[in-house]
């Protein structure tokens, strides 16, 4: 790594030069750094706001899943079968599915060797279980904090290898030369940093973009508050998006942000809503369900069927997600779970459907209050909230319908390359999934993507970046755009956080689990106007608020592109699918719900098509193409061996 300084206007900007910068410090980013080092590419650096922040380190569930090829028992499994499972998720490219299946064991065993405690039986088999959208027992777990354990193990490796980590840096621009990576520009978040030292630059040949999902778009989010993403920065650099319409939304607590899945629902808590001031308690589920058995059974099933799934909106438990949405946005109320009170007075468990009744009977939980049942079935679930200052035996838990995961993102190939030369995207920011995916497959995808990007860089993209004189010439006008924006927003008042709150809440209302083209178009106009007049409409009075300015700008760009993707999907005849209900005036209404919940279920007519999205100077452009099939590779050993000897099969 080389170091120098350049002067741009009033700013003295340190520039660090190296072969590869890894942007982000979650499980995928850290894994990419470790793999690069192991493959011999050691001229690297990690850039992050805070190595202890982000999604991987600060999320989980009652049993956080990791998905890989089955490694136990007598039930047959194969790379091809796992690839087919991933491919069946709709709108998935088969070549990427094959890579994720083929490398799942190698990447999983790397984590095991680093000390992540995935359970084995006495014979050494890695015991698994079936997860959602999984025909085999491919799922495993190291507990509620699987991804944190992964991240901690990977960070230990990074520290042991002395890989440089630059903290307190917010990515604000990908620097380019035509359609090729030149470097990164970051805002320095170090407390007390002098004004003229507010920016730091990196000159590099490659960027591994591991910035996570664009969580900052939504107010109601189960992502940790430290996670906002930087997908808008990538769109501004011309990176192509894919499957942007496909998300997962589900019920989660507001503080702390945590999925209320599994036993949190199977213990049968009582749902209620209040006015904003906490008054006027109403147990709103009773207004919809016809009888006690239906109310209790649907609540129980919400544990199994946690993500909102429009296929389960009519007869399944996803109607509960809609009822929560109605309370939050149509009635402007707050929603809570009460674990101290049964949803039915003098509860009669015999009215449960057979699945729910038999489960609770086997668990020995046909008694008491919800919190007593939860303590009996999963005491750590109660302890988790107690550790965060909430005693479920004494107080209610506020929840919302929250964004949980983006299945789409930045378009990549089988080496996790984007359409910008030298820019690789790994982890949730990369679009390797479609409408549905097996639980835990995102953790596998992050590790596989990191492996593939590192392998390609170490094989094909070695060497030094541009010399500093060339870098300064290329980057100066791009840096001046950012420093100019920073100067223009300084005024005598501040509205940046007010705008962040408003735009995020609007996105949760009009473009999350419930979508309507007219409301989407209306909000697109607002976002476009704010982007066009950003420097005039956004103001801050304190330099410490510059971070929020750039986060807001990234958020607005992301929203603009994602909203337009949703609009285009509807205009091309797209119907309700996955975790999104699209209003259709010719559809059917669920029960006695408001008109806005009339919809037509997807007939899978577009399940073999992929929507590609590019932000241009004149707007957003779309390209629809067929998915790439699962490759039928030549498996003749001598042929593959010859290629492997020639180029390591990296091409």
Automatic annotation (TrEMBL):
A single Gene Ontology CC term: plasma membrane
Residue ranges occupied by any FAD-dependent oxidoreductase 2 FAD-binding domain in the UniProt entry: 20-263, 366-443
Entry's Gene Ontology BP terms: anaerobic respiration
Pfam families (alphabetical): FAD_binding_2
Origin superkingdom: Bacteria
Molecular function GO labels: electron transfer activity; flavin adenine dinucleotide binding; steroid dehydrogenase activity, acting on the CH-CH group of donors; succinate dehydrogenase activity
Name used for this protein in its record: Oxidoreductase
Organism the protein comes from: Thermoclostridium stercorarium subsp. thermolacticum DSM 2910
